[in-house]
Amino acid sequence: MAEWSDAQIRTLIDERKIRNDEFHNFRRNWKIFWNSIADKINQENGILFNSHQCKEKFSNLVQNYNAICDFMSGHKSSGSQLGVQYFDEFRTHFWERPLPKNHQYNNYIKVLPHTTVIVSLISVFFLYCAIIP
Question: Where would you find the membrane-spanning parts of this chain (predicted)?
Fold first, then answer.
């Protein structure tokens, strides 16, 4: 399995985020979509990732985000260090099917008060884990 640098992960997240509508309108052939993202990452970083690797890496990032959410809600006993690094970005659920425009603002307002507390708790937890072995 290929190692991913922060720059490569950043490109993966950015491309998936800005092309979310395109992803959800692709219907049948997501391989073409993920190939185009792999091409972008390869072009910017001089490496050779394929569509499957990009899809799997993004899926793993979403799973890491969900593991942190489960941990914070008391459902699991450990979180993911990689997930913490990208938690703020993933808490917006940018990868999900977009809501109709009139629903987006209302959902943002409902999520906002809780996310600040969650991010603070994650920071305190990982600081505590780093201090006390």
Answer: 111-131
Give the confidence band of 110 by pLDDT, cuts at 50, 70, 90. very low
How confident is the model over 32-58, as pLDDT tens digits? 999 999 999 999 988 899 999 999 999
pLDDT confidence of residue 29:
81
The CB-based long-range contact list for 88-94 (8 Å cut-off, 24+ gap) reads: 88/115, 88/119, 89/13, 89/17, 90/61, 90/62, 90/65, 91/65, 91/115, 91/118, 91/119, 94/16, 94/17, 94/20
Q: Which long-range contacts (CB under 8 A, 24 or more apart) does 26-33 make?
A: 30/55
**For residues 76 and 24, is the Cβ–Cβ distance under 8 A?**
no
117's CB contacts (< 8 A; 6+ apart) are: none
